[in-house]
Amino acid sequence: MVAVPTTAVKVTLKSSPRDFLAPQAEVAGKLHELFPPEIDRRLMICKLAVTKAPERALASRHVGRRDIAMDMKLQKVTASMMNAVHDLPLLVARDEGFFRDEGLDVEILKTPGTGQHGSDHQALRDNIFQRTMESLYEDGQCDQFRMCEWGIMKRAVESNLEDNHRVAKIVALGSAMSSFAIVTDPKSGIYEPEQLKNVPIAVSPYNGSHFTMLKMMEGFLKREDIKWANAGTHKERLQALRDGKVKAASLQEPWISVAEAQGCRILIESRSTRSEAAGVELDGPTLAKMFRAEARAAAAIDKNPEKYAHYLLEEAGGAIGARDLKLNRILNAPPVPYTRERFNDNYQWTLSWGLVPPGATYENTVDNRAWQ
Q1: Distance between CA atoms of residues 86 and 313, nearest Å
Q2: Residue 143 in contact with residue 276, Cβ under 8 Å?
Q3: What strands lie across the sheet with 248-252, from one edge to the other?
């Protein structure tokens, strides 16, 4: 055991980390005089600690300054969302820092969509522009939003053709490819879509559950034989199904998984791709940054959907656990330009159902400025 002298070395540290560097040699020299060579290795450790501490302090200060500078430079964008299944890449891009990596500070306004367990009927109003998400956009409180492809088509077309609306353009085919299913109660004795001839199917009018139901059912029935009814939110229409008030309901996730957990029958299932809409004020380079971040988010979700399942489970309000949620229904892809062919096909389809007014063109409805 080496005896350690008791003589103390008094070192006065100055306030600045840079000033702290000055006495390093003096400190090390005095320590070496006081301690025998046998503990040089220990002194070296002490010396390194003395030497590196101010450097770490300076580095920490510089990092803090960079963070503050970055926060000051981040571009503010406000987007709105309704349900996690449609907006999952938006949420993940925000929470994983992908928007920040693109220099964006994206605020997400959560509006009461029909898929949240505590939703009211604001998203069910007959006038779509009086619904919460649409009215926020109309009032200039958000810059960008997304819905099912046909829902965005309806809103973009009407905002461009009708007076007194804030113009919205289709700016991309979005990330989320949301699952929808037509569900029945086994007690009803319905086993195939053809048995729903002239039977009202519960939907949310002019939303994804409505448009996707029409797309699914017209493969089995004549259009005049397809009927629908407004039976409230997803939670309410599932309850109406269980109570025998309706014989079929169109549901999205997580409510398809909730229905399965409650013993309901999945009659037919399909996907509904999102479209992205934005006001003319949101420029192309900013949209490009948003879409790059959402593409990263889509890849992250695809790699590990279980990590992000909690967003959907929260909307079910405890009706199911993680084990009950079907992760293979969570599907997302990078946003891409909205093509003329796709516009023509989907506009003519919605027009044929009387869901949009005539007179829209690709030029006055679509703007792929993120890729220009």
Answers
A1: 14
A2: no
A3: 104-110, 75-81, 144-148, 265-278, 169-184, 248-252, 200-203, 227-230
Sort 343 into a burial class: Cβ within 10 Å, 0-12 / 13-18 / 19+.
buried
Q: Taking all residues of the chain, what is their mean pLDDT, rounded to a whole number?
A: 82
Q: For residues 148 and 156, is the Cβ–Cβ distance under 8 A?
A: no
Structure tokens at 340: 């003329």
Query: pLDDT digits over 268-278, tens only?
Result: 999 988 899 99
Any residues with CB less than 8 A from the CB of 284 and at least 6 apart, and which? 369, 370, 371, 372
The pTM for the full model equals 0.77
Interval 235-282: pLDDT, tens: 999 999 999 999 999 999 999 999 999 999 999 999 988 899 999 899
Q: Domains for the chain: give ranges and CATH numbers.
A: 17-71 (no CATH), 74-358+365-371 (3.40.190.10)
